[in-house]
Write a structure and sequence with these properties.
The structure holds two protein chains of two kinds. Chain A is an all-alpha fold. Helix content of chain A is 72%, strand content 3%. Chain A is globular and about 60 Å long. In chain B, the strands form three sheets. A six-stranded mixed sheet of chain B has the order 8-9-10-5-11-12, sandwiched between helices. In chain B, strands 4-3-6-7 form a four-stranded antiparallel sheet, with helices on one face. A two-stranded antiparallel sheet of chain B has the order 1-2. Chain B is built from 29 helices and twelve strands. Classes of the chains: A mainly alpha, B alpha/beta. Chain A: This is Branched-chain amino acid ABC transporter permease.
Chain lengths: 292, 630
């Protein structure tokens, strides 16, 4: 019983972090119909940067997201303006290929600059845990979860309570309508891409503490995040949250009761089962496909 | 295929290259290194050509295609070690495994449109790797499998592999060429261009996509089996490498996605460049960076790929002469015998029906469709009797086109039933409705713009038989029939032009010919007169009348009221999502309800005669057309 509660608690903590990481991806897809395959590489890039800064200065890695988040915001903005805006209007598959290429470039650069070795940031609380009754929650997991929730709440606030957020949501729902009321598509898209990238600032910093990583880890991460987004329904923020929770739970439960080796696979099996029953994902609305 | 006809030398050049490659080991037998590079280029070309079937023709990008290479390798490796058979004998089983897995994944992911496929392909590649690591009993886990050394004398080096791969490559290219020639191939391109439209002309998009995915996996799986023997050692990380997928994508993109020879050319370029980079550019560490950069450069600056770019340049240098567009005279050009034959065919299709003329062919019962708060179609009922030309008129936004979409299956109704030809169709997928003899055109034409006019007309499938799916689309009966139909609408001369080059009115006619290919019993025409010039319009109505005489029933949405009153009987008037009046044209034009809701005062029988009636109406028709086009 304790095992089960422990596993569920850990699963939810991990799910929260996954939710943050997937939120950027789903936001970018929602606004631009771009599947940013480079999102995983962004995460590893940030993790690497965080690790280096922590290693050099000793500042807490999760706190360092204060630095990495604005950096990634700018990075995303520039990446959109320089690369993705060039292929606006061409088919969606081109953006997949472009961001895939971008991911490889980031991986290649990291390979050369940081080396092809596993790294992990280990702050002082790394091996400590909070004890709640019989269960113990690793401090790093808890801090990561809290940071993720704080950022998600901020993101939610921005999207629902500010003009910028409303503009982004308007552009998600009806680009031409948004343009009519003065929401410029390119500017909004760049902004959404920048915000989506900025979420990896926090996500990557958390990652550097919770998981060992090396340049090629981004494949694991992107397929995990894409899985969450497909599960939740592409473009849906609540979907990403719920999908991340489900997959976090599925993963920890398998690791607890089955074997660690299979936990990643369970992830993919859950996705396939959901797609079999509900092809549009849990929260994905079937869009009005006008045949006019 | 039109591309090949445009450049008839392509096959010749390909043949010469093949002869040179066949002779190369004989001429220069003691050079293992270049042979090794060539051999790997063949392997990449096999993969790229195969990938091209699903991601080039059908446009569904797979980023995990190297999974099939690994599946083939493991199938063959496991069988060879277990049962002591020579890997070359069981290599085809590698292809079989690949096809089985592709069908399984495809039937889950390819049922819907859109982006889930690309995502799942990456995930499945990584999942396959996890399987290979963890199923230790079968795969020996991370330790990998060591196979026996090739049975031939060391003096032969890798020359046998060279020929095996060359033969596999030739087979793959022939297979790809054959697919592109069939209606299956045309359907795949149709899916890439406009999936919803493809479904409406009888293309079973789900089946087509799954078959394409499976077809794109077979030769890779088989090549993977041979690859295991060539390497004599396989392990999970090497066999299911994502970088392998990257090279496949890069090769096809570089050469030209969707072309026959592009993937092969691209594979040779990528293999040679990558080899050079490994030798001169600091080893395989930099390969990821190099491939990533190359992929970005190709997407940004050479999105169509080398072959199509060169071809476009060639066409600009040597433009083809296009004949003068003689629309008015066009319709009279069809040889009388052709017209007669097609009419007889259509008459036969419609005569074998259980439903007699005058009985109800289409029955819409209490159908509703809501978009959020807006009820576009509200508990509407509509019957179309066999043999009639029924009109559906009404103000913009009254739900006419939505009703069309519900009938043709582009959208699902929220409630109500739709019956066609004695069968309930509202739960059927669009292509099933097409196979039953329900065809439609669109308010704004939806031709497949990158196909030729003839390919557009060949694309529809009148039934769901596999034989029809794999029938020849370039020569033979289907193509001849498409030519006949084009002659009937007077556009035979444009058969080999890209559909996007035609004028709007001509595109409407091509769309009608496309529907005729379905051997339809009922044709839904959505504003056939919109954007069509007056002289062509007269001919269009003549074609509709003639087809109707052959037994084809029509349901027409149209704002050109004089045309409707002239051509159609009965006329149904729609307003606010439901019919408000129905009857012969004479009664409709005087019905006070209709005058209030739609026709307006210009049509009210007035004391000052009917002189300005036409003028007022043509204004309105024009406005409607403009709105429709927007």
């Amino acid at each position: 019983m304790t095992h089960l509660v422990q596993a569920i608690a850990l699963g939810l903590l991990i799910g929260g972090v996954y939710a943050l990481m997937a939120s950027g991806l789903t936001l970018i897809f929602g606004v631009m119909r771009i599947i940013n395959i480079a999102q995983g590489a962004f995460l590893i890039l940030v993790a690497m940067l965080t690790w280096w800064l922590w290693h050099e200065t000793g500042i807490d890695p999760i706190l360092l997201s204060v630095v990495t988040t604005p950096l990634m915001f700018g990075f995303g903005w520039v990446a959109y303006r320089l690369l993705l805006s060039r292929i606006r209007g061409s088919s969606a598959s081109m953006s997949v290929l472009l961001t895939f290429g971008f991911a490889l470039v980031i991986e290649g650069v990291l390979n050369i600059t940081a080396g092809n070795k596993f790294k992990s940031a280990t702050p002082s609380y790394f091996e400590e845990s909070f004890r709640v009754g019989a269960i113990s929650l690793p401090k790093a997991q808890v801090f990561g979860f809290l940071a993720a929730m704080a950022v998600l709440a901020a993101l939610y606030f921005v999207l629902t309570r500010t003009w910028t957020g409303r503009a982004i949501r308007a552009a998600t729902q009806n680009p031409s309508g948004a343009a009519l009321v003065g929401v410029g598509a390119t500017g909004t898209a760049a902004l959404a891409f920048a915000i989506g990238s900025a979420t990896t600032g926090v996500g990557g910093s958390i990652l550097s503490v919770l998981y060992p990583f090396f340049p090629a880890s981004h494949y694991d991460w992107i397929s995990r995040l894409l899985g969450i987004v497909v599960l939740g329904g592409m473009g849906s923020l609540p979907g990403a949250l719920v999908g991340a929770g489900i997959l976090g739970l599925a993963e920890t439960l398998t690791a607890t009761y089955g074997s660690l080796n299979w936990s990643t696979l369970v992830f993919y099996i859950v996705i396939m089962v959901v797609l079999l029953i509900r092809p549009q994902g849990l929260f994905g609305a079937k869009l009005r496909e006008d045949t006019v | 295929m039109s591309r090949l006809r445009a450049l008839p030398r392509a096959h010749l050049i390909a043949g010469l290259c093949l002869v040179a490659l066949l002779l190369y080991p004989v001429v220069n037998p003691w050079q293992p290194y270049p042979q090794g590079v060539m051999l790997l280029a063949f392997l990449l070309a096999i993969q790229a050509s195969s990938w091209n079937i699903v991601s080039g023709y059908a446009g569904y990008i797979s980023l995990g295609h190297s999974m099939f290479l690994g599946l083939g390798s493991y199938t063959v490796g496991v069988l060879a070690v277990r049962f002591g058979v020579n890997p070359l004998w069981v290599a085809p089983l590698g292809g079989v495994t690949a096809v089985i897995i592709a069908v399984l994944i495809g039937s889950v992911v390819l049922r819907t449109r859109g982006h889930a496929f690309v995502i799942i392909t990456i995930a499945m590649l990584l999942a396959a790797q996890i399987f290979a690591v963890n199923l230790k009993g079968i795969t020996q886990g991370s330790d990998g499998i060591t196979l026996e050394l090739p049975f031939w004398d060391r003096d032969f080096q890798n020359i046998p592999f060279y020929y095996v791969y060359l033969i596999l490559l030739v087979l793959t290219v022939l297979f790809s060429a054959w697919i592109r020639r069939t209606k299956f191939g045309t359907g795949l391109v149709a899916i890439r261009e406009d999936e919803g439209k493809a479904a409406s002309i009888g293309v079973n998009t789900t089946r087509f996509k799954i078959v394409a995915y499976a077809a794109s996996s077979f030769f890779i799986g088989m090549a993977g089996g041979v690859y295991a023997y060539y390497l004599t050692f396989i392990n999970p990380v090497g066999s299911f490498a994502i970088l392998g997928s990257v090279t496949i994508v890069l090769a096809t993109l570089t050469g030209g996605r969707g072309t026959l020879y592009g993937p092969v050319i691209g594979a040779f370029i990528v293999q040679v460049v990558s080899e050079a980079a490994t030798v001169y550019g600091g080893g395989s560490q930099s390969r990821v960076l190099l491939f990533g950069l190359a992929l970005m450069v190709v997407v940004l600056f050479l999105p169509k790929g080398l072959l199509p770019t060169i071809e476009a340049w060639w066409r600009r240098r040597h433009p083809e002469k296009v004949e003068y567009t003689d629309q008015a005279g066009a319709l009279n050009r069809a040889p009388a015998t052709t017209t007669e034959r097609v009419r007889a065919e259509l008459a036969a299709v419609n005569a074998e029906d259980a439903i007699a003329p005058g009985e109800i062919l289409l029955d819409v019962r209490g159908v509703s469709k809501r978009f959020g708060g807006l009820t576009a179609v509200d508990n509407a009922g509509l019957t179309v009797r066999k043999g009639t030309i029924t009109a559906l008129i009404g103000p913009n936004g009254s739900g006419k086109t939505t009703l069309f979409n519900l009938i043709s299956g582009g959208m699902a109704a929220d409630s109500g039933e739709i019956w066609f030809d004695g069968r309930r169709i509202d739960g059927m997928r669009p292509w099933r409705r097409g196979h039953l003899g329900l065809g439609r055109t669109y308010q704004v034409t939806r031709l497949f713009k990158e196909m030729t006019v003839q390919e557009n007309v060949v694309a529809p499938l009148p039934d769901s038989r596999w034989r029809t799916m794999f029938s020849d689309a370039v020569g033979g009966h289907e193509a001849a029939r498409a030519r006949e139909l084009l002659d009937i609408v007077g556009l035979g001369r444009f058969a080999n032009q890209p559909a996007g080059a035609l004028s709007y009115g001509q595109q409407k006619l091509v769309e009608l010919a496309q529907v005729l290919m379905l051997e339809p019993k009922l044709i839904l025409l959505d504003e056939p007169a919109g954007g069509v010039n007056p002289s062509l319009l007269g001919q269009l109505t003549e074609v509709i009348r003639e087809l109707n005489r052959s037994g084809v029933t029509f349901l027409i949405v149209e704002h050109n009221i004089p045309l409707v009153l002239d051509l159609c009987d009965p006329v149904v008037v729609f307003s606010h999502g439901a019919p408000i009046a129905e009857g012969p044209p004479e009664r409709i034009r005087t019905d006070p309800l209709v005058l209030d809701a739609y026709l307006g005062d210009d049509w009210r029988p007035a004391e000052d005669g009917t002189a300005d009636e036409g003028a007022g109406e043509s204004d309105r028709a024009e406005t409607a057309t403009r709105e429709a086009v927007q």
